[in-house]
Amino acid sequence: MTKKIILSGARPTGEIHLGNYFGALRNWVELQNDYDCHFFIADLHALTTGYADTEQLGEHVLSLMADYLACGLDPDKATIFLQSEVPEHAELFLLFAMNTPLSWLERCPTYKDQISQLSEKEITTYGFLGYPCLMTADILMYKADYVPVGEDQLPHLELSREIARRFNHLYAPVFPEPQPLLTKSRVLPGTDGRKMSKSYGNTISFADDPDTVAKKVMSMLTDPARIRKDDPGHPEVCSVYAFHKIFSEDEFEDIGERCRQGTIGCVACKRKLQERLLAFHRPIHETRTRLLQDRGELRRILRKGTMKAREKAAATLKEARAAMHLDY
Fold first, then answer.
1. pTM of the model as a whole
2. What are the start-end ranges of the H helices in the chain?
């Protein structure tokens, strides 16, 4: 039976951190066993907010590829490719941009939100406003049946479906309407209690060596109301306890109870987390480090996946051009 098609990707803006892994990448690793998966490095999307600083983009691409492989993505099971090396994405983006109403783009939730959050950057550009058309081209290029998303991303996917419907109505029924695949994700706070984000400098990434990880764990914020070791704690407000829920599943309830009773101190709790977290982190870090020592091989694997993706993309673009009577 033909497998359903899935597409997703990540921007090469730095190393994959634990928040990225438990929010998306871990699900991708599981999905590749049951679906025809296409996972890409979205370097064109990185330009929407980082167009003025591209010097390290190539390094970030290889870093992200190493993270993909070290975390378990298998190029023999999934098509892993570089967005900018499949120029059909840019052309289909252009075709969609020609018939997408401006009002659809302006109402996109991310547009105003990102302009507010990134006020220090000049991102009121055509490329940033029109990125949903590029995102739609990414998805529809492979006629994806599903896109793994969280609930907060549903409006973006609905816009892709609207663009697909409009194209099919204007020209011919070329594209399916991609459906959301609501994936289970675990949310990890950053070391300072806020959302884990590179912009906050509160991440634990797979690029961090074990000593750095151990130090970051010891610096994590705990219950601010707990002064002495035997003070009753409130684990629900503690970043360390949020990590224990994932890395100490067999005893996090006991840890929480001991915290409430004041029978385990914050230092001992962090030491316990260090052990559990490093047991998970170290093998991925070591694999990532080894992969980056042979960048030629990384490029070869990425190039092979990109060539495979381009074959599919060329066929889809040919069909879209024919539907628009551009095959003269």
1. 0.93
2. 18-20, 26-31, 43-50, 57-71, 88-99, 102-106, 109-117, 126-129, 131-140, 154-170, 210-218, 239-247, 252-261, 266-292, 295-323
